Amino acid sequence: MPLIQTLQRLPARLLYLALFATAMGLLGFGLYLQHAKGLEPCPMCVMQRYAFLAVALIALVGGLHGPARTGSRIYAALIGLGALAGAGIAARQTWMQIDPPAIPECGPGLEFMLESFPLGEALPMIFRGAGDCAAVDWTFLGLSIANWSLMSFAATAVFALWMLVRRDAR
Q1: Helix, strand, or coil here: 61?
Q2: Where is the signal peptide (predicted)?
Q3: Are 54 and 82 in contact (CB under 8 A)?
Q4: Which residues pair with 140 in a beta bridge?
Q5: What is the pTM for the complete model shown?
């Protein structure tokens, strides 16, 4: 039986739980790189983590809920929005790594901002990007963390689109 037919027969609940596990695995790997390898995330990386977390939580709720067709489509749309938001951030960071700006746009690191500024002032700085967002500190198969993140968000968006249009959503 072809893979697509096998996936089509799986319940939405199982597919959402698989997405939850995948997103949590990616977040766990990011934490491993941070705490075991000493790679400090820039604010753009932190925002991508928030997008992965949003996708994971929506997928968990969808997996626990076991929705019918309409509910599954709502979860898929929300997951797609989270994936597109994360992909936009990852794409911007990828572009900054390919063509670093002449004057760094990032500014001070996340820890410095949170220690030095009230949260209301630090949040807008985080959304603009701070730290060295254009730096490539780690690669695997020639791709940076931002590149892998972009591909993961793109795959998640394709998953969400597939869940939106699939016939048997239960």
Answers
A1: helix
A2: none
A3: yes
A4: 143
A5: 0.76
